[in-house]
From TrEMBL:
Family: Belongs to the RutC family.
Protein name as it appears in the record: RutC family protein YoaB
Gene name of the encoded protein: yoaB
Annotated Pfam families: Ribonuc_L-PSP
Keyword entries, A-Z: Plasmid
InterPro entries, alphabetized: RidA_CS (IPR019897), RutC-like_sf (IPR035959), YjgF/YER057c/UK114 (IPR006175), YoaB-like (IPR035709)
SUPFAM superfamilies, sorted: YjgF-like (SSF55298)
Species of provenance: Rhizobium leguminosarum
């Protein structure tokens, strides 16, 4: 079974494909640190879309999402952006938890597993 890695660094790859699936690393708003939850979520979802497309997938193919919030009181703000982004009829299995993230400038992190294909 072939394994492909995308945007590989010293510690991790941003995406890995294997067996018809793409696994994304947890994505944070590296282009919008310190901004609002809404802005960070928008930035992250754009990154996810780009990574999925680069691996031969798209948001309609997402099977599972895990969302980590630094503060669960921001749940509704994150969901405003999420709900507008998820294609109608294609909501994945999802979990959202509160957690301490890599740095105080990050308030949201999202990990994705998707099927490859259009």
């Amino acid at each position: 079974m072939q394994i492909e890695r995308y945007e590989t660094g010293k510690r991790m790859s941003q995406a890995v494909t294997c067996g018809g699936f793409v696994f994304l690393a947890g994505q944070v708003a590296i282009d919008a640190p310190g901004t609002s939850v809404r802005e960070q979520t928008t930035n992250i979802l754009a990154r996810i879309t780009r990574l999925l497309e680069g691996a031969g997938s798209n948001p309609t193919r997402i099977l599972s999402a895990t969302i980590w919030l630094a503060d669960m009181s921001e749940f509704e703000e994150m969901n405003i952006v999420w709900d507008a982004w998820v294609p109608s009829g294609h909501a994945p299995a999802r979990a959202t938890v509160e957690a301490k993230l890599a740095g105080p400038e990050f308030t949201v992190e999202i990990g994705i597993i998707a099927a490859i294909g259009n």
